[in-house]
Design goal:
By secondary structure, the protein is α+β, with helices and mostly antiparallel strands. The protein has nine helices and nine strands. The protein has a six-stranded antiparallel beta sheet, with helices on both faces. A three-stranded antiparallel beta sheet has the order 1-3-2. This is IclR family transcriptional regulator. Keywords: DNA-binding, Transcription, Transcription regulation.
């Protein structure tokens, strides 16, 4: 059997690149803007936009501008339907977590050897973190949500993943394993400047009712607000919210609590099987 991957149809790929160029930050664009963003000829970009408009994936607005079309709503609903109760419970939890911490809260799902940020509720502070890469895969070695997921995979899965990183030196691999062991033992991960300078994050894993890691939930924001006083409270809120989502996933009758219960920094939180997570110490994220 031929294991060589089939060739990529560049015209189809480029059309999809044009489609996903319409991000939340720039929902309306001209052909010139799309062309500049993707490095295309302006006429080529216009032809792709007209073709996508004929399929209802984009729509033309007055003044020669374009925006996403109505058919993308069905695509979004189809994608989010895959998340099931993880997505619906997580959506409720994100609002509560953002309000409790004041920081941007986000939900991440595991997809193979990556994690994908799928939802966020942004902080209301003027200076705050915004995920610009919703829907894009992120390495399981980068960021607190990644570490929270990777640390709670089986030893065999961790070994397979690290084996795929041939560039990871033995001493680097040992350091990663030590860090993952610490994350697993304490029930959460913290990072500072992992993906963006001067940005901190606290994350906890979310498992299904069989104990399998589905993804992670986190809060993230400017490092000056992640202080020795605030971090323990953020840890308690994040781990408590992760525990609440897990409770909803275990509740097959759908009769769980309507909103996450608020946690204090000394109360800890619930982990799978009803065991309390370790109460949060007061470290500064590293």
């Amino acid at each position: 059997m031929n294991s060589t991957p089939p060739p990529v149809l560049q015209s189809v790929k480029r059309a999809l690149d044009v489609l996903v160029a319409f991000e939340a930050a720039e929902p309306v664009q001209t052909p010139a803007q799309v062309a500049s963003r993707l490095g295309l000829n302006r006429t080529t970009a216009w032809r792709y936009l007209v073709t996508l408009a004929a399929s209802g994936l984009v729509r033309e607005l007055p003044g020669g501008r374009f925006a996403l079309g109505g058919r993308t709503v069905a695509l979004a609903e189809s994608y989010t339907h895959q998340w099931g109760r993880f997505g619906s419970a997580g959506g409720v939890a994100l609002v509560r977590l953002r309000d409790a911490t004041g920081e941007t809260a986000a939900l991440h799902i595991r997809e193979g050897w990556t994690r994908v940020p799928i939802r966020q509720v942004e902080s209301q502070h003027e200076l705050h973190r915004t995920y610009r890469d919703l829907g894009e895969p992120v390495s399981l070695l980068v960021g607190s949500p990644s570490l929270a997921i990777l640390a709670n995979l089986s030893e065999q899965e961790q070994a397979s993943y690290l084996d795929s990183h041939a560039d990871l030196a033995p001493e680097g691999r040992d350091e990663v394993l030590r860090r993952l062991a610490g994350v697993r033992a304490q029930g959460y991960a913290t990072t500072e400047g992992a993906r963006a300078p001067n940005v901190s994050s606290v994350a906890a894993p979310v498992r299904d009712r069989h104990g399998r890691v589905l993804g992670a939930i986190n809060v993230t924001g400017p490092e000056q607000r992640f202080t020795a006083d605030s971090v323990p409270r953020f840890i308690a809120e994040v781990t408590g919210t992760a525990g609440w989502i897990e409770e909803q996933l275990r509740d097959t009758d759908g009769a769980g609590a309507a909103t996450p219960r608020r946690r204090t920094a000394s109360s800890g939180s619930v982990s799978p099987g009803g065991r309390p997570r370790r109460a949060a110490p007061a470290p500064r994220p590293r």
